[in-house]
Specification:
Helix 11 packs parallel to helix 12. Strand 17 and strand 18 form a beta hairpin. The N and C termini lie far apart (61 Å). Helices cover 25% and strands 25% of the residues. The protein has 13 helices and 29 strands. Strands 13, 14, 15, 16, 17, 18 and 29 form a seven-stranded mixed sheet that branches. Strands 20-27-21-22-23 form a five-stranded parallel sheet, with helices on one face.
Length: 543
């Protein structure tokens, strides 16, 4: 197949001055015809500047398909895509078609360019991002192929991970109990889901296993100490990481699943500043994640923190595999874990019909089928409208009698006017029915209703059980600043100061967003708290 012609965003025309500035970041090399400049699977590779000659970008052959040439890059162009910024290993290869003069820009020098030259930074970032988006729908998507039953929670978790990290991938849904094209290849139903990485099967795949193979898991440099580690990649965490990195702090962002938190599960946010026509949580988080990469934030997911402790003047954050991230300061933005209804067979259907998000991934599972949404806050209202607009008859079950007590009035008005949504206030879900997947839901006020999905938005518990040493209230939320209990303040006397705004009972450990006691549970408020916490980080480091 002939390579796709790149558009002006993917292959920007650079002026003499811009090209000269870009060359200053590279190291020159003369390469012979056919030499590979990087290969798929390389953990570390460079941005390639083509000064003369031509370089072709190829998707290597897989066991079921031949090699594909995706692009040819001539003089005054550069070869690379977004993986250069997020730490992902190469999933494509690049080779010279003839004698060529190229310059290699290491990832460290690329980050230096991004911080020093605003004009070049914007050109390069736009090109890398546009190439990533283009690759997602072409032959390159076969380099990461996810295969699993459409009703499988494990398969859905893999797809959500790949979508949230904007990975170039493809997904194949199988009917329950079937193998499809995998039949005869030594793979059984028990091996699903399978992730094919460069054609090699990874059976019973999890997001963590895939991340490790792609080079997205945390790798520390010897004796490395970062200025700031942010634990939790929701709006508060992303804001904290972006502000910290943009103000010169070496910053690591960890998330147990993938960046986004509960905001990424929101189908539409209509009252966020600057978006008069609304914005989906996924789009908002996607742009914020790209912004984080621009400023040099090192994002690792899935990467769950399990312990945080002070060691002298530093902090040690331990992740699930035992590796330790050493930092001068930390901001906890770990958010909250979804609450569940105490019903028989709830755990059975969590992998086959119960969802805690309403995005296009979940929509595919219930398209044009009746669903039940449980909850009385904005997330439940937004989910109901989104599902109804995409062909699902919706039963919205609200325990309280006043829909407007916890939900924005614009949402209440739209829900009341939508004929596709049946409101059940003062009601509760009392039973679940079905075979291998959810089929019916019992509501105390109306009885049994058909439902292929139950979307649960009944709040969440703060994710603070891994922080037993920090002062928390009776519900588990972290106390900060002047809210810290008196008995926890004694240690501050030796520091000669009181806790800073957003600072927890442990010096240099801060909290922001839903995990913090007294926070407003809204996306805009979380963004404000995350960025404001960084101001206190600077004060702590200066002291």
């Amino acid at each position: 197949m002939e390579p796709t012609e790149l558009d002006p965003v993917q292959r920007p025309a650079l002026s003499d001055a811009q090209w000269a500035r870009l060359l200053a970041y590279g190291t020159p090399h003369e390469v012979p015809p056919g030499e590979y400049l990087f290969r798929s699977g390389d953990r570390d590779y460079d941005l390639i500047l083509v000064d003369s000659g031509e370089v072709e970008v190829v998707r290597d052959s897989l066991w079921w398909i031949e090699e594909a040439v995706l692009a040819r890059m001539g003089p005054r162009s550069f070869v690379g895509e977004l993986g250069l910024l997020n730490g992902q290993g190469a999933f494509l290869s690049a080779r010279a078609t003839g004698p060529a003069r190229i310059l290699r820009v290491t990832r460290a020098d690329l980050r230096k360019l991004m911080s020093e030259d605003d004009e070049l930074s914007d050109l390069v970032l736009h090109a890398l991002w546009a190439r990533r988006e283009s690759l997602r729908s072409g032959p390159a998507a076969l380099t990461l192929k996810l295969v699993g039953p459409r009703s499988s929670g494990d398969f859905l978790a893999l797809r959500r991970f790949a979508e949230r990290l904007d990975l170039v991938h493809s997904a194949v849904e199988l009917a329950p109990g079937e193998l499809g094209s995998l039949t005869g290849h030594g793979i059984t139903v028990d091996d699903l889901p399978v992730a094919f990485i460069q054609g090699e099967p990874l059976v019973r795949a999890t997001p963590g296993m895939v991340a490790e193979r792609l080079g997205l898991s945390y790798q520390a440099d010897a004796d490395e100490v970062v200025d700031l580690v942010v634990v939790g990649g929701g709006p508060a965490g992303l804001a904290a990481a972006i502000y910290g990195a943009s103000e010169g702090l070496s910053t690591v962002l960890l998330d147990a699943v993938a960046p986004g938190g509960q905001a990424a599960a929101t189908s539409r946010i209509e009252n966020f500043l600057g978006f008069p026509f609304g914005v989906s949580g996924g789009d908002l988080i996607g742009q914020a994640s790209l912004q984080a990469l621009k400023f040099g934030v090192r994002v690792y997911a899935p990467c769950e923190a399990v312990r945080l402790e002070a060691v002298g003047d530093l902090l040690d954050v331990t992740i699930t595999d035992g590796r330790i991230i050493r930092a001068r300061t930390a901001i906890v933005t770990s958010g909250a874990a979804y609450r569940r209804l105490d019903l028989d067979r709830w755990s059975d259907f969590e992998r086959a019909g119960i969802y805690y998000a309403a995005t296009r991934l979940e929509l595919r599972q219930v398209l044009d089928s009746p669903v039940v949404v449980v909850g009385g806050a904005n997330s439940a209202g937004q989910a109901s409208l989104y599902l109804a607009a995409n062909g699902c008859p919706v039963h919205l079950v609200v325990r309280g009698t006043d829909l407007g007590s916890r939900m924005s009035s614009y949402l209440v008005d739209r829900l009341m006017e939508d004929p596709r949504i049946q409101l059940h206030t003062g009601a509760s879900v009392v039973g679940l029915e079905g075979g291998h997947s959810l089929e019916r839901v019992r509501i105390d006020s109306v009885g049994e209703v058909d439902a292929r999905g139950l979307f649960c938005f009944i709040g969440a518990e703060p994710a603070t059980s891994w922080l037993p040493a920090l002062d928390r209230d009776a519900d588990g939320f972290l106390r900060t600043g002047t809210d810290i209990a008196a008995q926890s303040l004694a240690q501050w006397q030796t520091l000669g100061r009181e806790p800073l705004p957003f600072e927890t009972s442990t010096p240099r450990v801060f909290a922001a967003g839903d995990v913090r006691r007294g926070s407003m549970k809204r996306v805009a408020a979380a963004v404000g708290e995350g960025s404001s916490a960084v101001a206190s980080v600077h004060r702590a480091l200066a002291g």
